[in-house]
Amino acid sequence: MKRQLTCLTVAVLMATGSFTAMASSHREAPSITKTPKVDGTDFYMFNSYESGRAGYVTLIANYLPLQDSYGGPNYFSLDPNALYEIEVDNNGDAKEDITFQFRFQQSLKDLQVPVNGTMVSVPLSNIGAITNDSSSAQNTAETFSVTMVKGNRRMGQRTVLGSSFKKPFDNVGNKSIPNYAAYANSFIQPITFPGCGTGKVFVGQRKDSFAINVGQIFDLVNIAAPISSSTNNTESAGKNTLADKNVTTIALEVPVSCLANAGEPIIGGWTTASLRQGALRNPVPASDIKTATKEGGAWTQVSRLGMPLVNEVVIGLKDKDKFNASQPMNDGQFATYVTNPTLPTLLQILFGGAGVKAPTNYPRTDLVAAFLTGIPTLNKPANVVASEQLRLNTSIPAAAQPQQKRLGVIGGDNAGFPNGRRPGDDVVDIALRVVMGKVCTIAGVNTAVGCKASDAPSGTTDFTDGALQTSSQFDTKFPYLTTPIPGSP
Predict the structure, then answer these.
(1) Of 18, 159, 180, 315, which one is least surrounded by beta carbons within 10 A?
(2) Distance CA 252, CA 56 (A)
(3) How far apart are CA 325 and CA 304, in angstroms?
(4) Residue predicted with more confidence, 226 or 442
(5) CA contacts within 13 A on the Cβ side of 280
């Protein structure tokens, strides 16, 4: 399920008359299920709220979903044959203006132990303590490069920002890495952006940042005891299916001056992953970890994620792979899925007996504004081409963690979703309300986006999925996402 949750994507009603929703992007399209290492799960873009980091934007792209912490002996390396990218549009034309490219390399130490007088290679990832120095007893290690491209991501001006950043090993367990938080923090590294300053970079395993009741939601919303009130701040037991899962995070903190143009503080962003067009499988791999396949040809995009849940529950099944291969500038081909979304209609069909009614304003100009162009006076660029991407107004100051409101803009916090996305924004609940017409009930905003309160009979209902998401579940410092779950206590 792919964590693209564009508030028009939202979620699901229950037989009791309340709604639940799914969110973001794990295994959201048929083809991506075959290549989980390049499956983007969540994308975050927000003004940094770490103390002393005003003037920075944090970009976070999560990949490789549903990691079980006990996934040894190979754990969850990223694909050295893939290209991972974070793309930024800073003039509203639906084309990338700045791209940050990440490539990964994996090395094998080939640890051996004496057995009956012979040194024999071990089958394990480590045979002793794992540390961030030469004493580490780990068998494999990952490094990565970061390249900044201005203009077209394939033909623009390229600047290598670093070629050998280190990535921490996954959280094997407390015997191998007694203090994983301190160990991982030692891999937060400075990165210099020529002409505009220095930021931070981190790539490594984190606890999955999304909360959702996956199994029951996809079983025809088979939830026995949903939370039915937005004032209930307790997550029901067993609601978050992802509570015991990890992901791999690519996190980058960038000075605003590197991203936004003078006079236009609003930027858009999305993340993609690409593979080579062709791959030959070696019938006799050599004795290392790099020769199982030989890959070549042009880069071919296989994953795309901006707003949460778009591909998962908005795009029709027949077009999910096409969406993953597409760019925002070509989103006109998917317009019907946004202007005439199927989910509200399905909810009305299933739960109309409980009083649920889909909005009646077609085309859904409120959803176009919230998720394709930006909301007027909040995060809509002066000149904008409608396209699916996360949009952030970098001139709106970040809210410190204690002051952040989980419902973002509709909760009175303009520093939150859909003005960018922070880890603590409860995008499922926000999306549930927006897809059912919440924006049409907000005086002043509704006229600006072309709808009215009478268009949304269920627009004032406090829909929720019952899996609470708040900023208190995350760290106050870069990279914000929390320590991954260990393989053993």
Answers:
(1) 159
(2) 10
(3) 7
(4) 442
(5) 7
Nearest to 44 by CA among 78, 84, 4, 16: 4
Write down the residue that tokens 């923090």 correspond to: 185
79 half-sphere exposure, CB direction, 13 A CA radius: 19
Q: Which residue has the higher pLDDT, 310 or 60?
A: 60
**Residue 218: phi, psi to the nearest 5?**
-80, -5
* Residue type at position 88: V
pLDDT value of position 24: 58
d(CA 398, CA 54): 8
Element (H, E) at 336: helix 335-339
Q: Measured between alpha carbons, how far is 409 from 396 in angstroms, rounded to an integer? A: 12
Taken in order 303, 205, 168, 173, is the CA torsion positive or negative? negative
Q: How many Å apart are CA 65 and CA 230, to the nearest integer?
A: 28
Reference 359, options 339, 374, 385, 376; nearest CA is 339
How large a percentage of the chain has pLDDT more than 70? 89
pLDDT tens sequence across 249-267: 999 999 999 999 999 999 9
Instruction: Determine the Cα–Cα distance for residues 73 and 278; give it in Å rounded to an integer.
Output: 28
Q: Which has the closest alpha carbon to 303: 36, 76, 482?
A: 36
Q: From residue 485, how far is each of 1, 79, 194, 274, 479 by CA, in Å?
A: 21, 22, 36, 28, 16
Q: How far apart are CA 303 and CA 317, in angstroms?
A: 15
Other beta carbons within 10 angstroms of residue 230's beta carbon come to 18
For the chain, how many residues are written? 489
The first and second tokens of residue 186, run together, are 């030692």
